[in-house]
Design a protein that fits this description.
By secondary structure, the protein is an alpha/beta fold. It contains 13 helices and 20 strands. It has two domains: about 300 residues, Adenylosuccinate Synthetase, Chain A, domain 3 (Alpha-Beta Complex), CATH 3.90.170.10; about 90 residues, Adenylosuccinate Synthetase, subunit A, domain 2. It is globular.
């Protein structure tokens, strides 16, 4: 049985949570392998709407085991707030496991994230201010705090004191903020230790055993390809590996265990935060897409930047991730448009680029070369087969498929759990 990776194709918010949920009762495990609570998944089940930030969306499916992998940075306050909220709504949260090697977000990470971003002024990255970047920086600098450190107070205190030696100088002398004591950090972290202890294990071993046993394991990426720290629009990126390769390093399974790579892509494009966005709209079409698609951040509430579908980005993501299947979401949001533009290439100072330019400066100055497709007026939210779609919608999907370099296996036609058209099974 397969290991299935789900990754975002664009700049996030494509609907990865719904794609994970779509696999539903055929999934045994869902693993979050990167990021922290800087991204959100919104899943609609019946009349209930769930907004998850740190937890894998599989925790909403009965009988599914949810795992927070070693590649995630964990804010314990957020983790337990989410768990308590789900428990209060009657959901079973007992199946969650957390990697002993996952790194923790502390108070000083959140503080540094906020003051550093303000300090950048016009050069701001557009972070969520939740401490994600500073926590990953500490991980790479080898001064991070891991989940397992909570269970040895002496080690925990030594690591916190070592981290604060430098950070307090930065906070006080550069940012004019108060210093932070080791006691307040240690006491805060230890307050979660006993509640966390039953969830903590060697999740890499757990997942490899599950794959050996023939279980279906879904690896759910946070953020998306164009926010990947290596392959995205650097420096306007997240601090982790959001592409399919990150599923292996962020969960402790080998890349040969990953059988299917599913890319989630909107029928148009959005992003949050700063950075280049060639198809961005600033007119009534942008307002139409934002309002119809309710394009506001699940985590931050910030209005998302919106634009037309970008085919070169999808081809790039297909190549970088080795995508085998695309899930095209929010096709219904385009209903009512007379014509639908698609970016097929870029113009950079008079030169045509059919692929994403390798030079960031070129991409920043890229202007979209558009091809136009007829729109449709019919409500498509009740379509459940491809033939149920208006011919114009069918033609649009087929054109995107041809441009994208891989097949479109699933089409989302509405926000509800069953508002999908399945052209190719994601598991078999």
């Amino acid at each position: 049985m397969p290991g299935i990776v789900i990754v975002g194709v664009q700049w996030g918010d494509e609907g990865k949570g719904k794609a994970t949920d779509l696999l539903g009762d055929r999934t045994d495990w869902v693993v979050k392998f990167n990021g922290g609570n800087n991204a959100g998944h919104t899943v609609v089940i019946g009349n209930e709407k769930y907004a998850l930030h740190l937890l894998p969306s599989g925790i909403l499916s009965p009988g599914v085991n949810a795992v927070i992998g070693n590649g995630v940075v964990v804010d314990l306050e957020v983790l337990f707030a989410e768990l308590e909220a789900l428990s209060a709504r009657g959901l079973d949260i007992s199946r969650l496991k957390v990697s002993a090697n996952a790194h923790l977000i502390t108070q000083y990470h959140r503080t540094l994230d906020k003051v550093s971003e303000r300090f950048l002024g016009k050069r701001q990255i557009g972070t969520t201010g939740r401490g994600i970047g500073p926590a990953y920086a500490d991980k790479i600098n080898r001064v991070g705090i891991r989940v397992q450190d909570l269970f040895d107070e002496n080690i925990l205190r030594q690591k916190v004191e070592g981290a604060l030696d430098q950070k307090n100088h930065l906070l006080v002398k550069v940012f004019n903020r108060r210093s932070i004591t080791a006691d307040e950090i240690v006491d805060d972290l230890l307050s979660y230790a006993e509640r966390l202890r039953p969830m903590v294990c060697d999740t890499g071993l757990l997942l490899n055993d599950a794959l050996d046993a023939g279980d279906v394991v879904v690896f759910e990426g946070g953020q998306a390809t164009m926010l990947d720290v290596d392959h995205g629009t650097y420096p306007f990126v997240t601090s982790s590996s959001a592409t399919a390769g990150g599923a292996a390093t962020g969960s402790g399974v080998g890349p040969n265990r990953l059988d299917r790579i599913v890319g989630i892509v909107k029928a148009y494009t959005t992003r949050v935060g700063s950075g280049p966005f060639p198809t961005e709209l600033f007119d009534e079409n942008g307002d139409f897409l934002r309002s119809r698609g309710f394009e506001f951040g699940t985590t931050t509430g910030r209005p998302r930047r919106v634009g037309w579908y970008d085919a070169p980005i999808t081809r790039y993501a297909t190549r970088i991730n080795g995508i085998t299947d695309l899930v095209l979401t929010k096709l219904d949001i385009l209903t009512g448009l007379d014509q639908i533009p698609v970016c097929v290439a870029y113009d950079v100072d008079g030169e045509r680029f059919d692929e994403v330019p390798v030079n960031q400066s070129d991409f920043h100055h890229a202007k979209p070369i558009l091809e136009y497709f007829p729109g449709w007026k019919q409500d498509i939210s009740t379509a459940r087969t491809f033939d149920d779609l208006p011919i114009e919608a069918q033609d649009y999907v087929l054109a995107l498929e041809e441009m994208s370099g891989t097949r479109i296996s699933v089409i989302g036609v509405g926000p509800s759990r069953d508002a999908v058209i399945v052209r190719h099974d994601l598991v078999d």
